[in-house]
Each structure stands twice: as C-alpha cells, then as structure tokens.
Here is the input.
Amino acid sequence: GAVVSQHPSRVICKSGTSVKIECRSLDFQATTMFWYRQFPKQSLMLMATSNEGSKATYEQGVEKDKFLINHASLTLSTLTVTSAHPEDSSFYICSANTGTGGNEQYFGPGTRLTVT
Amino acid sequence: GDSVTQMEGPVTLSEEAFLTINCTYTATGYPSLFWYVQYPGEGLQLLLKATKADDKGSNKGFEATYRKETTSFHLEKGSVQVSDSAVYFCAPSVSGNTGKLIFGQGTTLQVKP
Here is the structure.
C-alpha cells in the first residue's frame, strides 16, 4: 500500500518551454502532497505543500509563478515548471501524506528534468 | 526553529560490519521521527519510524530508538550487506501538525564485499 507514482521519470526540454510533472497516489487519497527539489549529492529542499482544492503553500524563496502547482483531486497533484531555464535542471520528487497518525510521507520515484 | 543533524558521510563498511548513523534533532514538542533510504536514481523509501519516546522502529534489520532525553534517533544495523548501499535520511516532523518533514543532509553508505 501507499504507492506514489510520478510521470514522466525523465524529461528534456528546451529553454523557455514549460514542463508538467504529475504526481499520483495510487492506492490512497492524499489531501496533502509535497514537492521537493534535490540537487546532486544534497538533501531534499521542500518547494511547496499542495492541498487538494486550495492554493499551494510555497516555501520562502520559491517562485510561485514559475513553479505552478495544482492539486485538482485527492490522488493527483501537478507541478508545472514554466519558462524553464538550465538552472531549473534538477531532480524533482513528490510525496503524499496518508493523513493517518505519524505524518509519514510516501515518495514518488522522482523526475529528472534537464533544460537545454 | 526545528532542525536535524546527521553524521557526515560517506560511510564505507565491509559486508557484515555493524552500522551506526547518528541523528539528532531540535524541535518543539514531540515530533514523529523517520528514517528514509534513497537508492541511486530513485525516490525516497520509508525505512522505519517512531512516533513517541522510547519507541523502537525496525525494518529489514535496521533499528532506531526514539530517545527524548538526548533528542536522538540513531540508525543501526548489526550486519550490513552490499545491497544496503544507499543514502540515508533522518527526518523529524515539523512542529505544528503541518505534515512537513525536515530532512537531514543525508549520509551515503557504501558497503564493499
């Protein structure tokens, strides 16, 4: 149980284009999902908290107009990187909270974004 | 504010050696505590957890005990295998029931045959 998928697993796009990454909870409903960014050999940086049916809450320093988050249903959240630049190249990981006690998060396999 | 500190890696061990990865945290109240593992090119997997003082989380031979008095949650395994080579993250929950976790910098474990 508690499986989270991400799509695509890898994407290469040209500078200036937009890319959408999907995060799905496959066997549970997730009222809250989280988006992280991970740089090589570094820890996870929380970008935003995505709540179903409401606006995402962004962490300090994260541009909400650049990283658009939509949590349209209890099983799907999307992250759109708009007008991507090479410095946006990174590993993006989502997670979902089951809502049960303990606050554990279940993570997707990640999406490797490369902007050329 | 809430924070977490993990021992720096990389940690290199021979197969069947004993493993300890230290983790200490600062938090308001009593956070839930988690260890996650990340294999190369993959997302994070929940390894074990503990939700209250003196709880011991265990999974796949790994153990960690919630020590409130020392605010620690050290990860141990009695006999590591090559397949345990990965990055390990200690992650306490953030105060205030936000559902957020704080991640340590991660400790890379390399096990040699």
Q: What stands out?
A: Chain B has a mean pLDDT of 93. Chain B has no helices and eleven strands. The longest strand of chain B covers residues 44-50. Chain B touches chain A through 23 residues (CB under 8 Å).
